[in-house]
Amino acid sequence: MAQKIDRGTRRVLKVMAAGGLAAAAGLPGASAFAQGKAPEAGFEYRAVKPPQATEPPGKLEVLEFFWYGCPHCNSLEPTLKEWVKKLPPDVAFRKVHVAVNPAWAAHQQLFYTLDSLGKTAELNDRIFQALHVDKVRLDKPEQMADFVAKYGVDRKQFLDTWESFGVRTKMRKADSLAAAYKLDGVPAMGVNGKWFTAPSMAGGNAQSLQVIDFLLAQERKGGGK
Fold first, then answer.
1. How far, in whole angstroms, is CA 127 from its chain's centroid?
2. CB under 8 Å to 61, separation ≥6 — which residues?
């Protein structure tokens, strides 16, 4: 008679299997689903309860929850950028800078100040480089204003926008999303208001993007209802 395996044991066995396959292939962190098995709810991804509203009408939405100071977000960034470039027209991607830890709030405010100025796409890479490679301190608005001024952002305009109601509103909205998705770390991703995954769940950066592709395909087929 077959013995029923409880959920906790299944998770351990799945991680062990993924590790063995990764070692055999010479790939750190490869997960079992990468070997031809579909991602599994409760393991590589989970449902968002209750589902959240999405912003772009008529499109599938992908969110990346991140923090400028996170080394894992920094390591994900190059792979993520290449993936975003290849997204089909029915998918809308956006970054959501969160402050799960209060110490992240200054960087969150930096992101939404640049977002309000239309400068995030231009300066995101430079900020990651400054923080993680050049070890530049960007803890205070004056330091940030000096830094972005080197790349053509008006210093006074930056500081005025930093204090604006619009930036504070965007920060509160990001915090509300983080709470709704039950976020406890970054990087992490939300898919179409219904699903949550992360490199830590999927077994690596590339694997998490494969999970997102799987979930988007399920949404297109109506399997996400």
1. 17
2. 54, 55, 91, 92, 93, 94, 190, 191, 192, 193
pTM (two decimals): 0.83
Question: Quick check: is 153 in a domain?
Answer: yes
Tell me how many domains the chain contains. Answer: 1
Domain that holds residue 150: 51-221
Structural contact between residues 68 and 224, judged by C-beta atoms closer than 8 angstroms = no
Question: What is the Cα–Cα distance from 211 to 198, expressed in whole angstroms?
Answer: 9
pLDDT score for 203: 95
Residue 33 falls inside a structural domain? no
- Residue 107, C-beta contacts closer than 8 angstroms, at least 6 positions apart: 67, 68, 69, 97, 99, 138
- The string of pLDDT tens digits covering residues 65-117 is 999 999 999 999 999 999 999 999 999 999 999 999 999 999 999 999 999 99
Written as six digits, the tokens of 178 are 């983080």
Burial (Cβ within 10 Å: 0-12, 13-18, ≥19) of residue 149 = middle
CATH number at residue 81: 3.40.30.10
